[in-house]
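Hi R.,

Here's the chain you asked about this morning:
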Amino acid sequence: MPDLIALHDEARRLVAHHRWEEAALAFARLAALCDRQGHHKGARGAWEAAGETWRRADHPVAAARALRMAIALDPEAWLVRVKLAGVLADVGELSRAEATCRRVIAGAERLAIRAMAIDTAVGILEARGLKEEARDLVAQLPSGEEPRHAAARWFREGQLHRMDGHLADAAHAMGQVIAALEDVPEAGAGLAAARSELAEVALLRGDHREAIAFYTTAVGEQRASGRRSLALRADAGRVRAMVEAGVQPLGHDLDDGVPWAQERALVVLVTDLRIARGMYRAGRDPARAAADLDEAARVADEHEMPLRAGRARLERATRVPASPGLRRALLDRALRDLGASAVMAARAALALAEAWRETDPSRACRYAVQASARFSAMGLEASARAARDLLHELA
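And the predicted structure, written out as tokens:
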């Protein structure tokens, strides 16, 4: 028994210092020792802790293995299943992750665990572009006074507002997330996620400086939380914002991050990093930029992430030289991929209008009208004006 206590205390000490890999190994040793001594409940808890710390160490394959060990010891360990769904989502197994969440939603009795499963499922559905299914689940999230519950509800509602093109509502919702979490201990990752969403809203509005500022803050907060993968995701957003602002960023973190994330099978992160790297490479090395963006689109297709696939194709078509036929094909596919994102779909429609202006003015007019109407409805007057100016040229 003293060996178990000492090993548990050592693992907790390592967690307190954010030494995630060492902590995960300590928990795994504790689980094996508990199992040998017949302490199956202790083994289940240790495997769960090992899975959680492996995920924080950005080793999702090891995390999934540990969490499955915990589930084998307790098939109704609903919270462990939610954590497993999050890991599956990290490696791009979105359908399996969603199915895992829905099993928990149907089977768990505790409201807090069901809420975590719903929140995780909503994020997965949004990544898959299944906006209406996500909206149905958001309505089931609790919205009481408990800060984390309130923040989760506001966060997911804000993401849906962003996807719908209701950008003022999205910004308001993320402000509520920050207000709910700013005094909550260990909420740095949640605060950083909200700031990243505010950065995305600013990018969609065309306010590049604000987007860069939000993303820069988010990078610092994620680094402080000890999660390199989350810091890299925020940094990918910062690079995209700088490129859109016309600033040439340094891409060393992305260059190091792509192979690092690939080694860990962090599929979603690799896709985000390749999109950002493709954008910053476009001005200096078009061939390598095309390779990054094409690979991002391929992987996003393979793992049911149409919004990321559409973004990759839109950036490929508008930033990297291509034949007129390839450019139009990329934009046509991007428009379909981006259907769940109102602003990005409107951008794809405007790009298609530009792509057809010389060879088929009537078709270009149809896309320009579509883009103008969408931008105007969302209050994005500068973009709407660009579409109307194109219409006047085509008239």
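The chain has a mean pLDDT of 94.

Let me know if you need anything else.
M.
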